[in-house]
Design goal:
This protein is α+β, with helices and mostly antiparallel strands and 237 residues long. It has six helices and twelve strands. Helix content is 22%, strand content 33%. A hairpin with a 3-residue loop joins strand 6 and strand 7.
């Protein structure tokens, strides 16, 4: 996959080769023909301006695609990988910030339940990457756009539109992803009478809101899909 590797030094160091006035005039004539790209292996898809980008190469494994701009030096990288390492969105965000964008100043980051965004600048370049988890956290889908700071007026709106059309792959069985482990089956009595259940501030808040002691099951929705049983007390300090 392309976008998990650090950006090549040559790509990061590329400068503009077109005079500013000519460059802006050329850009004004592009980004009108938006087409769909769909990955056949994992099913993720997005729309991109075909008159601004052309396909450069596809990974041998069929899990990613690199697009290059017809004007300027921008790169659009799209791909997916199986989450064999059990990353969560938060841990993967930190991982790629350190390994893919260590030469950049991170200026924007957002984190959701199953997605995150990173963006920043460095050495005259701007990057924007969005990552979405699908298939109960087993598949990581992402796209990244790298372009010159001088090209922001043109590429910033393109980033926004690509992001709005980007959809993660969800045909998990067709992609050959392993099935998630079955949920642990417990009887209601086992839930209500756990042994040595620890106390939790979250469970205490729930207990106080309900006016009675409670037992709360905290289940992880991403690998390793484990769970924890905690107690909450309505009246104890």
């Amino acid at each position: 996959m392309f976008i998990r590797r650090p950006w090549p030094v040559g790509l990061v160091a590329l400068g503009l080769t077109i005079a500013c006035g000519v460059f802006q005039e050329a850009l004004a004539a592009t980004a009108e023909d938006w087409r769909e790209y769909r990955n056949e292996r994992y099913g993720f898809n997005l729309r991109y301006p075909a008159d601004a980008f052309t396909m450069e190469r596809t990974s041998e494994a069929g899990d990613g695609q690199v697009f290059v701009s017809q004007v300027g030096n921008a790169r659009l990288l799209v791909g997916a990988l199986v989450n064999d390492s059990g990353f969560s969105p938060a841990s993967y965000q930190e991982y790629i910030a350190r390994h893919s964008y260590s030469d950049y100043e991170i200026k924007y980051r957002r984190l959701g339940q199953g997605w995150f965004v990173l963006s920043g600048e460095g050495k005259g370049k701007v990057f924007y990457e969005k990552v979405m988890f699908s298939c109960t956290g087993r598949l990581i889908n992402s796209f990244a756009l790298l372009y010159s700071v001088a090209e922001r007026a043109f590429f910033d709106p393109i980033v926004e539109r690509i992001e709005n059309t980007f959809r993660p792959g969800r045909d998990c069985e067709h992609a050959g992803l392993p099935a998630p482990p079955p949920p642990v089956q417990r009887t209601p009595r086992q839930y209500l009478s756990p042994t040595n259940a620890e106390r939790s501030a979250l469970a205490d808040r729930i207990a106080r809101a309900r006016g009675r002691d409670v037992v709360v099951v905290l289940r992880r929705t991403t690998p390793p899909y484990d769970y924890r049983i905690v107690r909450g007390y309505a009246s104890r300090p």
